[in-house]
Design brief:
Layout (H helix, E strand, L loop, with lengths): L12 H14 L2 H27 L3 H35 L8 H28 L3 H13 L8 H12 L3 H11 L1 H21 L1 H9 L2 H19 L4 H25 L4 H4 L8 H35 L1 H14 L1
Helix pairs in contact: 1-7, 1-13, 2-3, 2-13, 3-4, 3-13, 4-5, 5-6, 5-13, 8-13, 10-11, 11-13
Length: 328
């Protein structure tokens, strides 16, 4: 006999991830676009900031103003992600969205500004400590997806976000393992740092890489990406698939342009050194973030929805309503 749905039933992490993908797939365009309105400017600003600070001779003079601009883009991104999550929840429950008034927007900006910047420190710290990582990670995700600008008391809001973060730890770990950009970047940094360290210990390997012809460099690049892909795969399987495809596309396009149109790029001529630098890592991660983060936001929208439904039973009401419409 098939088990009936229960408000206290813990759904599997893979099930939540699948529901999150489907939720984004069926969501209206204006909801999905709200995520990218906020996130794309921040990712572009981050890539520019990273490149400028690591290569420009005028980096010390521009660092302060550029940091302020990047911080403003970060808050911009978090606020739009809250708008995106609010739209997903309205679409999920079939309720009309409430207009974003000046007071709601102001409350959202104030709360996100007071909470989210600390996540850039607390999440990596919790990741190093391992044990509290799932709760800290979930707290900051919940603080984004639960934001609607209506709640005045920030302390009670944070308590609710923390309580939701402690709910269903096994499910939470599976979702993070599959979708979290934080897990992906940790694996990428570890593997790239290891390869860079090994190459720095052997100058002969660097000189050999420079002396290879174009086709040999191409094969070496593909092999390096494949090796990294296999090493990071156990840490973040879905994220690794996304990042691996993006990295291969970035590598192949310059070679295809040279093969088809005779246009040689500096990236193609640099060989393996084209991928063994931080700008390449940040570009791959930035694009991967734009693919993964909307899905994990949708997953935490679902987690919060099912968590609240343990008392309200809203998920059962939605199922009954859908069943009655189907019968009609």
């Amino acid at each position: 006999m098939k088990a009936t749905s229960s408000p206290d039933r813990e759904r599997k992490g893979v099930e939540i991830a699948g529901e999150a993908l489907n939720l984004i797939r069926v969501a209206p365009f204006h909801i999905v676009s709200s995520y990218f309105i906020g996130s794309v400017p921040f990712i572009l600003g981050l890539l520019y900031f990273w490149s400028d600070m690591s290569k420009s001779a005028f980096a010390p003079q521009r660092c302060f103003n550029a940091s302020l601009g990047l911080a403003a883009l970060f808050i911009w991104m978090k606020c739009w992600q809250s708008v995106f999550a609010s739209g997903l929840k309205n679409h999920l429950t079939g309720t009309p969205g409430t207009a974003w008034t000046f007071s709601r927007i102001s409350a959202m900006i104030a709360r996100q500004t007071s909470i989210q910047p600390y996540g850039l420190l607390m999440i990596p710290l919790a990741m190093l400590l391992l044990i509290p990582f799932y709760a800290v990670h979930s707290f900051y995700q919940n603080a984004t997806v639960m934001e609607n600008g209506d709640e005045i008391d920030s302390r009670s809001f944070m308590k609710r976000a923390w309580k939701q973060g402690l709910l269903w730890p096994k499910q939470n770990h599976v979702i993070m393992w599959l979708l979290s950009p934080w897990v992906l970047i940790s694996g990428m940094i570890t593997i790239f740092a290891t390869i860079w360290f090994v190459m720095s210990l052997s100058p002969d390997m660097q000189s050999i890489a420079y002396e290879l012809d174009t086709s040999s460099k191409y094969l070496l690049l593909v092999f390096a990406v494949f090796l990294i892909y296999q090493l990071v795969l156990p840490l973040s399987p879905f994220g690794c698939i996304v990042a691996g495809n993006i990295a291969i596309a970035i590598i192949l396009l310059p070679y295809l342009s040279g093969f088809l149109f005779g246009v040689e790029t500096n990236f193609a001529l640099s060989g393996i050194h084209g991928i063994m630098n931080t700008s390449f890592i940040m570009t791959v991660y930035g694009l991967s973030y734009l693919c993964l983060d909307p899905v994990i936001k949708a997953a935490y929208v679902l987690r919060c929805f099912y968590g609240d439904s343990r008392q309200s039973g809203q998920d059962l009401l939605i199922e009954l309503d859908a069943f009655s419409r189907k019968e009609e």
